Amino acid sequence: MTTEQPVPERYRLVTDDLGLLRALAHPARLAILTRLQAEGPATATECAEVAGLSPSACSYHLRTLAKHGMVEDAPARGDGRERVWRALQRGWVLRDPDEGELTPDLLAAQSAVIETVLADAQARLSDYLGQSARESSEWRTAATLTHTVLLADADELREIAARISEILDPYRVVSRDPDEAPTGARLAEAHLRLFPRPPRAGRRK
Q: Which parts of the sequence belong to the HTH arsR-type domain (predicted)?
């Protein structure tokens, strides 16, 4: 989740805000926030569909996200009986503080957020695999699942991440105008995990 790249204005940079980190580490809140950022404004009832909770429980989590500056009230619909929420940023980026070392509390909070994000991503991948036989041949052949072990130093790993990010940028849902996407475009995901293995005795580091 860390990044060395400049953070676009449409993202919120999350560094040492422990309260926000702990809010994001909750699976339901992450699901709600992702729904609002990727698909636009929604009610608590609509958010409940992705969070697996009741509308009243979603309302509580939405208020928590609002407290930390991630969501706010959106213009009402129709008769205005249901409260509509929207994300304040199209995405967020987790990065270490610019100065000083990570404190144990901050490191634990960041790790909790990362674990929640990875678990959420794994659940959606499992959902895809479970129903992939019902996808068209066009979409099945377009999906790519790759696991590769690399031999690289820290600078090379950063370069790999930057080059992949550059390729993905034009297609990110947070920046692409849906009206400009081709007919048949769907939400799709790219899961990128670049990390060094812990060194072992007698092995090249």
A: 19-108
CB 88 within 8 A of CB 70: yes
Q: Which segments in the chain show pLDDT lower than 50?
A: 1-3
The CATH architecture that domain 11-146 belongs to is Orthogonal Bundle (1.10)
Which of 125, 124, 132, 126 shows the shortest CA–CA distance to 30? Answer: 124
pTM: 0.78
Q: Secondary structure of the chain in the HEC alphabet?
A: CCCCCCCCCCEEEECCCHHHHHHHCCHHHHHHHHHHHHHCCEEHHHHHHHHCCCHHHHHHHHHHHHHCCCEEECCCCCCCCCCEEEECCCEEEECCCCCCCCCHHHHHHHHHHHHHHHHHHHHHHHHHHHHHHHCCHHHHHHCCCCCCCCCCCHHHHHHHHHHHHHHHHHHCCCCCCHHHCCCCCCCCCCCCCCCCCCCCCCCCC
pLDDT at residue 181 in the model? 93
